[in-house]
Amino acid sequence: MSRDVDAAIRGWREQTIPAAGEPDSLLAYRWFGSVRAVVEAESDYLVLMRIETDPASRGRGEASQALEWLKTLCDRHGVTLLGQANVDEAGGLGQTALLDWYARHGFEIDTSRRGGPLVWYPRRPAPAD
Hints:
The chain is of the alpha+beta class and 129 residues long. It has helices at residues 5-14, 62-76, 95-104, and strands spanning 17-18, 30-32, 35-41, 45-53, 80-84, 108-110, 118-121. Helix 1 runs antiparallel to helix 2 (62-76). The chain is globular, with a radius of gyration of 14 Å. The model has no long low-confidence stretch (mean pLDDT 84).
């Protein structure tokens, strides 16, 4: 299987809806159901910059469903998924709970980075010979 970052980000955009612009944000949020997230394409991987559930829908597992769908999309295209574990919104998960959430979804946690924890989903199909 070849690594196809373009196909993976295209799949993300096709299955999500752009969020209304926020004047102070440079991030391109998109909705996946009640989950608002920012996913960006890098050279060989996708980066989940932010993931937030609408406050009225929290506790229903919708962010977990969105993350599992995104992992499947990345696996389908042979792309590694990286995540930034930065807590920005009051009322959401705290740092420890967010890292635990990523770990429950099969991500490895790297706390050695100066800019904050980085997580990545290491499982992906092996390259075809």
